[in-house]
User: Fold these one by one.
Assistant:
Number 1:
Amino acid sequence: MKKAKKVISALCILTFAITALTGCGSSKKNADTNNVDASQTVADDASDSSKSDSGKKYKIGVSQYTTHDALDSAYKGFVDGLAEAGYTEGDNIEFDFQNAQGDASNCNTIASKLVNDNPDLILAIATPAAQSLANVTKDIPIVVTAVTDPADSGIVETNEAPGGNITGTSDLNPVKEQMDLLLQLLPDAKKIAILYCSSEANSKFQADLAAEAAANVGLETQEATVSNTNDIEQVVQSLVGKVNAIYTPTDNTIASGMSTVAMVANSNNIPIICGESGMVENGGLATYGINYYNLGKQTATMAVKILTGESKPADMPIEYLDNMDLTINEEVAAQLGITIPDELKAKMNQ
């Protein structure tokens, strides 16, 4: 009996050992399969940066300085650019959009709110919004757009090497080409006004560039500044009989009040050469400048690199658009009796 028990015990031990070995082999096979699957998943994710952190929902804060066509287009381009990269609102991304309505104090309030909410990234649209955010956080990644010269505005160390938590895209205009355009449309012009808001650092920067470019082509200039949209009508009216044309850069205050600028200027036969196409659509004569929707999309590409960990703002140079668009308001040209040269017509139709 004891011998039989020993045999049975031995068989049990042998059976257990075989089962354990079989289980280990099965586990190893499953583990190897899982490792292959995991490796494939990583490879797939690497090929699509928008899926680099599967299941994560990103939060992006947005501070826009004011409402006008250029800034609105930049934001739309940013949202669409992220969507094309696989970051879709309501799916894997959430936006907290805030608009300061042209009030610098609102920019400060919005900046504090967004930083306290600790998003994954913040988008700042226009210089005042960017400056307010730069003052309250050195940690949260920030991408800016529609900022003419980030270094001159004090939000990065240099445009080539930002060195902190901020990078993005510039809306620097081709001022020389805009002055050339002015003379093509208005060959008899002798004196122009440079109209901008004195409280916007980006506008002062552009105004200085415009004055230099105008002098280089033999144009005399006169500065005409406003402090807010309420000043626009009076300031433009003061230019009647004194200048042959008005040049205005990508100034947020002027853009917001462009209909008023155009109402006074056009009724007094003063053509307006603008910094961007939205201002032309609202009554300006012409511009040769950037496409803000495309600028927003370019900013989105930079944001994706930051979200995926591919790059850090400190190491990402400020980017610029290479392509410029010619926009001429033919109705305004007809109203002012201005003939559009065939050369410009050909460029408009390209």
Number 2:
Amino acid sequence: MNRALSIAASGMQAQQLNVDVISNNIANLNTTGFKRGRADFQDLIYQTLRPAGVTAAEGSQTPTGIEVGLGTMPVSTQKIFIQGSLQQTENTLDMAIEGNGFFQVLLPNGDKAYTRDGSFTVDKDGKVVNSQGYPLEPAITVPSDTLSVSVSTDGIVSVIQEGQVEATEIGAIELARFVNSAGLSSRGRNLFMETDASGAPITAAPGEEGLGTIAQGYLEGSNVSVVDEMVKMIAAQRAYETNSKAVHAADEMLEVANNLKR
């Protein structure tokens, strides 16, 4: 079979995955705390028709060989954890991380998940929870008679209650970071999970251990650039089109071979 068919087909499949990743980036343009993805590829094994350095019939050594590549394949789709722009909301429990780190939330099964989405609120019991109802970890409970809540840059949560003038500290936010954030598993709903590749979480107060600080009344926007993604999509589309032309050329070559007569 003509190698060009399978080679070009691998290129088309690779560009289809590339467009899928780009489309997901664009779809999440307005998703709070979203981190854009990137598809990485590598070339496949090579078929060696003649190795380099072999001795020719006249005794000379060939400086180069003959190797034919067999296409491409995807090797990873990784998240790019670049800081998104901060958007002021003036909502008391909206928080953004300026710098490295993740908020920690507790899932119903007891596992911890990690997120850059700082759109928190309180449930009926006064617990600080995210938009899915998962409580912030460590847990913080806001008293029912609270008039105002303040969060310092280092994560200290204080409230002013009815009949009081001085603020009362009710807890502290703890952030987590990872040696390899790109190794985290994306679970949807703006959540990431720890993996062997990411390493164990390093937890500390905001501003310590290389972690960022808290900005109350702000949310972190997506780090997707529409212009960059559109340019990437055009390049991927053209690459897909070019590979399809290679398939067509290989098909025409096979047609010529099939039509040969003695």
